[in-house]
Amino acid sequence: xxxxxxxxxxxxxxxxxxxxxxxxxxxxxxxxxxxxxxxxxxxxxxxxxxxxxxxxxxxxxxxxxxxxxxxxxxxxxxxxxxxxx
Length: 85
Prior knowledge:
With 85 residues, the chain is mostly helical.
């Protein structure tokens, strides 16, 4: 479990909110350095990787906390996929 997931669980518990994890269709390499290379290539290509699912609607929420790791001064490209949907 990474830092983002831990913070998300803390926020959900403190607010009584729901958790949703943005997951990509593509499976990334299990080797850390190769995974970083894949992520950097996505950033350089301004890619929008496909995600497995997204909520039907966000209209039922008054407040949304969006957490993600900071990769090279921005969020992972799959977060852009989620936001643009």
